[in-house]
Design brief:
Helix content: 25-40%
Distance between the termini: 60 Å
InterPro entries: Acyl_CoA_acyltransferase, FemAB-like
GO molecular function, one term: transferase activity
Keywords: Transferase
Largest sheet: 11 strands, mixed
Shape: globular
Protein name: N-acetyltransferase
Number of helices: 11
Length: 416
């Protein structure tokens, strides 16, 4: 019997792809995150956050076999490099200096979201590679300069190697609910289920019993620093409350957005995400959000929003996402963005807390360096060769940087 033919279709909107079929493919991926759910990506579009007017033109690539969706990915055609967190401004400048257009280009990514995870949703490895092949061919047909696969999972990186993409590595900082031991190496995304045993009987790894147990695993100077920073917030009269899912009220969301917007405006930029985007999250993905609100004198003054994985059978992960404050309090950022979420993760048995892109200051708060991966294809052969040489040198530097960071572990050596 002849093998069924795979048909490629590229749509002008996420709304044109069936949400149930998309999410069913996502559920099959070992490194699924809530940011790749159809509801999340569609909300970015329908809220006006990631749309052609803001430089993000969605062109989801899909593969079909016998009328059934077998693979898909969120591809965007872009006229700039904002909101990606894998920086290629130097490449764009080099193109411009040689009189060549770098934009428009294409990315397979989650807009404004530097969270590693599955990007190529497919039934198996062969279909995953076929999906990336189809996306690359479509970009070539459209005359786009390049295609970039950002913050990809290991399965996606394997597919990219087979299609001639160039790997690139960056560094993030993640907290795990188990103290590392002497000699622990730096890794990228953990294998499927590698942390799922945390806190489980017979799993061989036990999560921290409480906050004091976590502090006890740190070196003396780090314990002292954390206690001092938390004391400053407490002595300023600040307390915290948290709400999850449906417990987050409309007033809470409104206050959070005031804080979020203030943070961007203080840096001279409008926020990437609209208030309507978060309204979509409250309606369609409430179980994936955790809000911390700082209060002083009975009034809210700051907030931090954490995303949560939560699908049955998946590793439990918290993702640091957004924060903002209406009043200045020394060390409030550390308390809202690191200490409160970590304490919550310990109390609720969450296995990992991802602190987001960059920031080696996070190591002092026990977030350890991990490698995050991307892959890149450039249509122009000469520029592709030049970028390949650059990435080889850059990769050597990233490896040295990871080794350097690992030598500065905040954890005390020996039994914990």
């Amino acid at each position: 019997m002849a093998e069924s033919t795979i048909i490629t279709r590229v749509f002008p909107s996420l709304q044109d792809v069936d949400a149930q079929a998309w999410n069913a493919l996502l559920a099959r991926q070992p490194h699924a995150t809530p940011f790749m759910r159809h509801e999340y990506l569609a909300a970015l579009e329908s809220s006006g956050s990631a749309v052609p007017e803001t430089g993000w033109a969605a062109r989801p690539v899909t593969l079909w076999r016998d009328g059934r969706l077998v693979a898909t990915c969120p591809l965007y055609v872009k006229g700039h490099s904002y909101g990606e967190y894998v920086f290629d401004w130097a490449w764009a400048n080099a193109y411009e200096q040689h009189g060549l257009p770098y934009y428009p280009k294409a990315v397979v990514a989650v807009p404004f979201t530097p969270v590693p995870g599955a990007r190529l949703l497919a039934e198996d490895a062969a279909t995953r590679q076929a999906l990336l092949h189809a996306a690359r061919d479509w970009c070539a047909e459209q005359g786009l300069s390049s295609l970039h696969l950002l913050f990809a999972a290991g399965e996606d990186m394997a597919a990219s190697g087979g299609e001639g993409f160039m790997p690139r590595h960056t560094v993030q900082f993640h907290w795990t609910n188990v103290a590392p031991t002497l000699g622990t190496g730096v890794s990228s995304l953990p294998p499927e289920g590698a942390l799922a045993a945390l806190g489980q009987p017979g799993g061989g790894l036990a999560g921290y019993a409480d906050w004091d147990a976590f502090l006890a695993a740190l070196s003396q100077d780090k314990r002292k620093k954390i206690r001092q920073e938390r004391r400053k917030v407490q002595e300023a009269g600040v307390s915290f409350r948290w709400a999850r899912g449906a417990q987050i009220t409309a007033a809470d969301w409104d206050f959070f957005y005031r804080c979020y917007e203030r943070t961007y405006l203080e840096h001279g930029n409008p926020p990437y995400l609209t208030r309507d985007f978060f309204a979509h999250m409250a309606r369609h993905m409430p179980q994936h959000w955790l809000l911390f609100v700082a209060e002083r004198g009975g009034h809210p003054i700051a907030s931090s929003l954490i995303a949560l994985s939560g699908d049955p059978g998946c590793e439990q992960v918290a993702y640091g996402r957004y924060w903002g404050a209406l009043e200045r309090v020394d060390c409030l950022h550390f308390e809202a963005c690191y200490y409160q979420p970590i304490a919550w993760c310990i109390a609720h048995g969450v296995q990992r807390f991802e602190g987001g892109a960059q920031g080696e200051h996070k190591m002092a708060r026990a977030l350890m360096p991990v490698q995050a991966d991307s892959a890149h294809w450039l249509a122009h052969p000469a520029f592709a060769d030049a970028v390949d040489r650059f990435l080889e040198r850059e990769g050597e530097g990233v490896a040295r940087y990871l080794d350097h960071l690992q030598g500065r572990s905040p954890f005390r050596h020996g039994p914990t």
